[in-house]
Each structure stands twice: as C-alpha cells, then as structure tokens.
Design a protein that fits this description.
Its EC number is 3.1.3.11. The protein contains nine helices and 13 strands. With 333 residues, it is an alpha+beta fold. The strands form two sheets. It has an eight-stranded mixed beta sheet with strand order 2-1-3-4-5-6-7-8, with helices on both faces. A five-stranded mixed beta sheet has the order 10-9-11-13-12, sandwiched between helices. The chain is globular. The protein starts with 8 loop residues before the first helix and ends with a helix. The mean pLDDT is 91. Bound molecules: 2,5-anhydro-1,6-di-O-phosphono-D-mannitol and magnesium ion. Magnesium ion binds next to strand 3.
Length: 333
C-alpha cells in the first residue's frame, strides 16, 4: 500500500481557485509553472555539493559543458519557464538590470518579480538559500507589459512566496488567504502540505541583525538593539541572536519560531541593502498574512511603499508583531 501523503501544492492552489468562481485559472497555471522552475533549481542546488567532482562554476564539466554559476542558472530557469507560460506580460529579476519583456504572443495578465537565488554567498558552504517571488496583476492595457505594471505596492500583490533550499526544500506562499507551507518529498518530486496556515508567534525568540556593522548604525538602531539585549525582570536575556546572512533562511526561522529581522540603513549603506520588489515586499505580505508586521526605519508599512525603481533598496524590520511594534517606537520619525 502506498503511504498516504496528504495535500499536494497543486491541489491546494486549485482548491483556492475554486473558492473564487471568477478565477480563470491563470494564477493557478502561473504558480504551477513557478513550482516546476523551483524543482529544477532545487535539483541543481542539491548537486552543488558535488561541484568538486563535477566541476566548479566557470569550469568545463565531464560532458564538455561550461558549468554555470548557480544564481545564473536559477535566474535563467525562472525566466525561461515564465516567458512562455502564457500568464505573464513582463518580469523583473534581481539579477537583471532592466525589465524582462515577454513576447506579445505569450503575454498574460500577471507580472513576476523575483530574486532567483537569495543568499548566494552561502552556496559554497551548504547553507540554506532561497528563491523569492512576487506576483501582481497588470494594470496596463495591450500586449506588452510596462515597467509601471511592476512598480506596484506590496499591498497590491496577488501572491508572494519563497522556496527555501535547506535541510529539506520548502515552499511557503500566500494568495492573501493566510500562509501555507509545503515540503518537497524528493522521492516523488511533489510538495506536500506540511505547515498549514502558518502564524508567526506574536513574541520573538530571536533577533537577527548583522552586528558587525554596529559601528555604522544610527542611534535609533543602536538603542533598539540595546533594548532587545536588556535583561528581563528575572535577570535573564529575553532573546537569542541568530543571523545566517541568507534572508530567506533567517526569515523562515523567525516565521516559524518567532523573531525579528532587521536590516537598517546605516552610515555606510544609504538605504540598507535589501530590495523592495524582490525581497522586502513579498516577505512583508507573507509576514502580515501570518500575523506579523514589516516596516521600514521610519515606521512605514513596507506594503504601502510606492516603488519608483526596479532595484530600489529599503531598510527592513520584519517579524513578530511585538518586536516590530517596539521597533516602531524607536524608528518612527
Ligand atoms: P544577495 O541578494 O546578494 O544574496 O544579498 C542579500 C543577502 C540576504 O540574503 C541577507 O539577508 C543579506 O544579504 C546579508 O547581508 P550582509 O552580509 O550585509 O549582512
Ligand atoms: Mg537577494
């Protein structure tokens, strides 16, 4: 008897489509194609540990092919999958300077912005990395999508999520009806529902910030982090520090266990490091759907920020509600 595996991600997406009689199935199709891209990337990420045997990036492998860098591979895989799926009119990737157009004959009604492989400095050392995606409905008429279709607020996203390639591979996404988490069973190549209706603990256990930059911090960041380090009424530390340096991994841990992640602006980086369209906005929608919050370092909700350029950076404070509320007191201008 085969083991009962439960709900697959395609089934879950189809179920949510059925709850909306007006839905045409295009978002379902788009998400399913993205998931195929994620599975292809996952299989390549899993091979990365064999690089020493199969050839390092930039080298020629045993088949006589040039070995691609993993982030380039992930970028190309998503672009190829999306450009002919028929559901997308224009794309943007953290790895490409400009917009990525789609042929007229394939243009659909959605836009996709993505970070193909976030945390790529961790690839060589077997630390979790991830793909982040953000989907909007186009606003323009006609076949070709316009840059304005991509420059919409996070609040206007119709779906957002990430795939984390870690000790197991997970897909976490929202279509605005809560957050669902799926784990890939590699033996059948399917994502199965493992974390239904994820809620972030309202109180954090962890804080995540690159403390090495504390010399560059502005006073509000310093005061906030000092507050987090204060002893509680029992004379004990209230939090532990966790910082992987891979946003998806830091976010995922904080989402499940409770935590706050902070990447502020400082005296070195004008506006922080993280990108509004590919990183901050999709994770902000997820965290809000899970009961948490995301703000910038002036206390503005990330989901309400109007993007003006594709690669716009934004200071980010994201995670459990209590600690983001506290941050708001320190950061609100
Ligand atoms: P990347 O998109 O070039 O991979 O950079 C983004 C990464 C995030 O995953 C992570 O949170 C951050 O950079 C870490 O930056 P830092 O090393 O400055 O702390
Ligand atoms: Mg990134």
């Amino acid at each position: 008897m085969p083991k009962r595996k439960g709900i697959t991600v395609s089934r879950q997406i189809m179920d949510s489509q059925h709850r909306h009689p007006e839905a045409t199935g295009e978002l379902t199709g788009l998400l399913n194609d993205l998931i195929v891209a994620a599975k292809i990337i996952n299989s390549e990420v899993n091979m990365a540990g064999l690089a020493g045997i199969l050839g390092q990036s930039g080298q020629i492998n045993v088949q006589g092919e040039q070995v691609q860098k993993l982030d380039d591979f992930a970028n190309l895989t998503i672009k190829r999958r999306m450009e002919q799926c028929g559901y997308v009119c224009i794309m943007a990737s953290e790895e490409d300077d400009g917009v990525i157009p789609v042929l007229d004959s394939y243009a659909g009604k959605y836009t996709v912005a993505f970070d193909p492989l976030d945390g790529s400095s961790n690839i060589d050392v077997n630390v979790s990395i991830g793909t982040i995606f953000s989907i909007h409905r186009r606003k323009s008429e006609g076949t070709q999508g316009q840059i304005a279709d991509l420059l919409q607020t996070g609040r206007e996203q119709v779906a957002a999520g990430y795939i984390i390639y870690g000790s197991s591979t997970m897909l976490v996404y929202t279509v605005g009806e809560g957050v669902q988490g799926f784990t890939l069973d590699p033996s059948v190549g399917e994502f199965f529902l493992s974390h239904p209706d994820i809620k972030i603990p309202p109180k954090a256990k962890y804080y995540s910030i690159n403390e090495a930059y504390s010399r560059y911090w502005h006073d509000n960041t310093r005061a906030y982090v000092e507050h987090l380090k204060d002893l509680d009424e029992r004379g004990e530390c209230s939090y532990s520090l966790r910082y992987i340096g891979s946003l998806v991994a830091d976010f995922h841990r904080n989402l499940i266990k409770g935590g706050v992640f902070v990447y502020p602006r400082d005296r070195k980086s004008g506006k922080g490091k993280l990108r509004l369209l590919y990183e901050a906005a999709p994770l902000a929608l997820l965290v809000e759907q899970a009961g948490g919050r995301a703000i910038d370092d002036e206390g503005r909700n990330i989901l309400d920020l109007e993007p003006t350029e594709l690669h716009q950076r934004v200071p980010l404070i994201i995670g459990s509600k209590e600690e983001v509320d506290l941050a708001e007191q320190y950061f609100k201008s």
